[in-house]
Amino acid sequence: MSIETREGLWGCVCDTGLENLVLCSSDQDTIFITSGMWATYVPPAVDGSHNIEFYPCPPDYCSCVNDVITDVSGTVCMYAYTNSNPDLQCSCNRRGVLCGECANSSSVTALFNRCSDCSNHSFLLIPALIIVDVVVSVFIAVLNAPLPEWTYPFLFYIQMAPYAVQYFPLSFSTVGKYLYFVGSASSFYFVYDFCLYNGMTSLGGSALRYLPLLTGAATLLPLLGLKLCMSKRRSTIKYHGLWMIVLLSFSHVVYTSMSLLNCPSITDSNGHTSPRWFVNGEVECFSGSHLYLGVAAGIILLLAFLLTVTTTVLPLTQARHKRQWVTKLSSTLSFSYRDKCEWWASVELSRRIFLIFVLLTFPRNTTLVILVLAGILALFGHAHPYKHRLTNISEVAVLTNFIILLALRQTPYVIDEYFQFPSEEGEGGCGDNVPRGVATISWILLPLYYLPVLVFAVLIIARIVLYGAPPLWARVKKIKIRRREEGGFHDNSLSMSHRRPASSMPTTHTSLRIARGVTHGIASVIRSNKKKKSWRNNGLELRATTADDHEDLIDPFL
C-alpha cells in the first residue's frame, strides 16, 4: 500500500499482499489493520512503494473502532489507522509513537501503565510498600525455612502466565488481570493497579518496580553480614530464606530490566529512524533519564546471569571446596532436587530468563512461546528433577495446561470485546466504554487460565487441614536452638548448675531431656567434621545429616 501525496488528496491504494493490512475504508483516509498493531506513515511517498509501516502495539495501548464492517457473526471491532489523525488508533488518553505518551495531563498507573487521571493521595503507598517489604524480608530471613518443593511448578506459572497472555483479547484481560495481581504480590510489589501520584511517567513507574529489589538488598545483606560476623560456627548457617526471596522476586526484576532494554528501531512521521523504548515510544533509548535506568537494567541483568551461572557451578564443584559455607550454600540450592540434579536451581532461573526474553523480543509470536514451553516440558518430563514424584507430575501437568491455553488462543474467532472508540470532540479525547460482553473464546480460556491457581489454593488448604500450619513458636524455638549451637556445644539439660533436683523432675521427662542432650552432642560432633562421612550399605549411600536437616525433613509443609 502507498499513500499518494498529490495536493489535496490523501488516498489509500490497497495492496492485498501487504502484511498486516486488512482493507481500506471508502473515505480514502482510513485503513483497517491487524489486531494489536500500530501503524505510521513514512515520508517521502514514492509511487509504487509502501509508505505505511507496522509495529506491535504495547498491550492495551491501541484501540479498536466499531465501524460498519460485518461478517457472518455481526459487527466486528477492528484496529484502524487514520492518516489525517494518527492518534485515533490509540486508546483512551494516549498519543504519539506506539501510543506511548499519556495525553490530557493523565498519569501512568503502577502495574499496567494505563493513562489515568490522578491525584497525590496514593503517594503514601510507596513508603508503605517499603515498610511491608522490609518486614516480610526480615520475617523470611529469620524464619529461614526452605520454599516447599511442591510449590515450584505453581510459582513458575503464577509468575509467567500473566506476561504470556498480555495480547489476549481485551475481554479476557478484564477478567484475567487478577492473576497478575497475585504474581505482583508474590514479587513483593503492589497488589492492585492504581495511580500513585500526579505526573507519574513510564520511566518513573519502571524505576518504582525496583523498590522490592533495593529494599530486599538493603535489608538482607546487612542481616547476612551481621550473622556471619557474630556466628562462631558459620558452617551451620543456612541460606533457605535468601534463596526463597531470590526465587520469588527474580521474574519481576528480570522482566522490568528487559523491558527497559526493549528498544525497537522505529521510523516516525518525519522519516527519522531511532531506537525507541517499547513501553513509551516517545522516549529515545539511552538518552535523558532512560540512560541511567538502562545502565542500571544492564547491570542487574548481568548480575542475574552471574547468579544463574553460580547456581550451576556451586553444586557441581562443592566436593572440591573445603569451606563449609560453600557446602551449605550448595545444599540449599539442591535441597528440593534429587541427587543427580543438584544443579537444577540454575534451570529454574534460566527458564524464566529465556521465556521473558522471547515474550519481549517477539511480543505477538504465540507459536514461538508455545515451542519454548514445549521444550521446557520435554526437559522436565525427561529429567524428573524433583525428589518427589507428585511434584514432577505437577510440573508436567501445569506446563501442559499452559501450552493448551496458548494454543487455544491461536484458533480463529471473532473479536468481541470491550472497546473504546475515540470521540470527535478533539484529538486525544475518549469516548464511552461500550460493553459488548466477554467473547466466547474467553469463557473457554479463563478456566484453563485459573485452573493451576485453584489447584494451588486447594493444596494449601488441604495441607493445613491434614497436617496443621507450622506454628510460629515452633520455628522460633528452632532458631533459639540454632543460636545456642552456633555459640558452641552447650545444653541446659546437661548443665548441673541449671538442672532441677532429680526428685522434682519426672523420670520420663528427665530421660527425654538427657536423650535430647545426647542427640545435640552427636549432631555437634558431626558438624565439626570438615569432610562428609558416608557409609555404603547394600549399594545405597547414606549421607550424615545434621539435626537441623532432620528438622526440615520432617516438616509436613515440605
UniProtKB/TrEMBL annotation:
Transmembrane segments: 123-142, 154-172, 179-199, 211-230, 242-261, 291-314, 353-380, 449-474
Source superkingdom: Eukaryota
Residues spanning the signal sequence: none
UniProt keywords, alphabetically: Membrane, Transmembrane, Transmembrane helix
PANTHER family recorded: G PROTEIN-COUPLED RECEPTOR-RELATED (PTHR11319), OUTER MEMBRANE PROTEIN PMPC-RELATED (PTHR11319:SF35)
Name the UniProt record assigns to this protein: Transmembrane protein
Organism name: Geodia barretti
UniProt lineage: Eukaryota, Metazoa, Porifera, Demospongiae, Heteroscleromorpha
